Amino acid sequence: MDIRNLQSFITVAQCLSFTEAAKRIYIGQSALSKQIADLESELGVELFIRHHRSLELTPAGKTLLREGHGLMARITDIVEKTRQAQRGIRGSLKIGCFGFENAFLPYSLKRFQALYPQISVDIRVLTLRMIEDAIESEALDLGFTLIMGNELKASRFSQSLIHRTPMCFLLPGDHPYAGASSLDISTLAADPFIILSEAETPDGFNWFMNLCADRDFTPIIANKTTRMESVYWYVEAGVGISFMPKDPSLVRQVPACISLVGMQGEEAYCNIMATWKKEHSNPAVPLFLKVLESLNMKPYQDVQLDTKKFPRTIACR
Question: Whole domain around residue 58: which residue ranges?
Fold first, then answer.
């Protein structure tokens, strides 16, 4: 059924006059008559009883008018929602964060909300494993995850590099190397480490173990945890040492009694990746990614990135 013919029929049925209906929808009376005739021919029914100076709806016409009103309202709603989805001006966006996003997320959110005020943003602070699981189940539309080092690791998700920064050690204030500017991890081979659990961040755990193996030692692991907050507590208590991205926005969160010492080595870098499921169809995701890209978040000024090994955007594998 031609939607234009249906709309024309509804107008004629409301006016019960071809002349008046033609004026309302700005077409010629003969063209309108042809539309109604085509609709009657397509349906195989008469919709109007044509008197000399008036029209009357047949039982079939009354039924089509009643049902057509609902259909046209539904079509209008579908068209508007489709246009809004294309523009991304309505809806919701669920984002998973793990706590390292201070350098870019506040600015991104401010810009996104200014551009798309009718998209509600729900931010959930989770562990890295929880973020990946939620992206997989589509409980999250997008999340931020980590890739350590300089080389791309395969992922089941689509990813885009958002922020890159060197790593540093977290040492208790009374540690012998607390005043050093930078150290190789081999210098700390005898120290116990506090690390994030491999169940939560297998990439980070493997990066750390490989880093130590390259220096010919097996690290002493005093404790494993799921959150950076507890890492600070353990280091402050003297239980062990740890490491984190050396980003000014993160450094401000570290207790004053903990010393930050730069980590030497080509692989001593942290990469924050926007991560999403390619098959997930929320139109707000590409809009938010475009905002992240438009802010032109530069990698840390001292970091050299090999774009052949580490392209900024990674398609899912």
Answer: 3-87
